[in-house]
TrEMBL record:
PROSITE patterns registered for this protein in UniProt: HTH_ASNC_2
Protein's recorded name: Transcriptional regulator
Record-level Gene Ontology MF annotations: sequence-specific DNA binding
CDD domains, A to Z: HTH_ARSR
InterPro entries per record: ArsR-like_HTH, AsnC-type_HTH_dom, Dimeric_a/b-barrel, Tscrpt_reg_AsnC-like, Tscrpt_reg_AsnC/Lrp_C, WH-like_DNA-bd_sf, WH_DNA-bd_sf
Transmembrane parts of this sequence: none
SUPFAM superfamilies reported for this sequence: Dimeric alpha+beta barrel, Winged helix' DNA-binding domain
Source lineage: Bacteria, Pseudomonadati, Bacteroidota, Flavobacteriia, Flavobacteriales
Coiled-coil segments on the chain, per record: none
SMART domains referenced in this protein's UniProt entry, alphabetically: HTH_ASNC
Length: 160
């Protein structure tokens, strides 16, 4: 994949959007002393190039009552069942992340639940998926780092 060349204005726009995706283009323009139209054109260009893919909503899961986090390593009966199992995992809204992995597990996923009882129900849903041989669960005691902004600032700066 070709690396795109961004100029300093693009980097400044990205830095502001990484820190707060809801920053209005008019505010970005004011901070950077450029027109809002320029910000709009630059952002649209980065979207067309695939550098920016929408924006995300950050929620406080604790306020929503989903304080229990666990990671589930899934062993498949057969490797070729991975896509089928991933499609079934997508049907479980409490599975928030899933990866096909190398190493010990065929699939590794993150779940969010209200409490241990609810987590047990979610894990049973996962274990009941056709093709899942068994799973292993690790309970998260505390989420210490969850900040992709640091990586985004660094990665976008490397697009010089």
């Amino acid at each position: 994949m070709a690396r795109y060349k961004l100029d300093e204005t693009d980097h400044q726009i990205l830095d502001l959007l990484i820190d707060d995706t809801r920053t209005p283009f008019t505010e970005i323009a004011k901070q950077l002393e450029i027109s809002a139209g320029t910000v709009h054109v630059r952002v649209r260009k980065m979207e067309e190039l695939g550098i920016i893919k929408g924006s995300t909503l950050t929620v406080d899961y604790e306020r929503l009552g989903y304080t229990f986090i666990a990671y589930v390593g899934i062993f498949l009966e057969r490797n070729h069942q991975a896509q089928f199992v991933l499609e079934r995992l997508e049907e479980i809204p409490f599975v928030t992340v899933a990866h096909i992995t190398s190493g010990q597990y065929n699939i590794f996923c993150k779940i969010r639940a209200r409490d241990t009882k609810h987590a047990k129900e979610v894990i049973y849903m996962i274990d009941d998926i056709q093709g899942v041989a068994r799973s292993e669960t690790m309970i998260s005691m505390e989420e210490s780092i969850n900040d992709k902004r640091r990586l985004l600032h660094k990665a976008f700066r490397e697009l010089q």
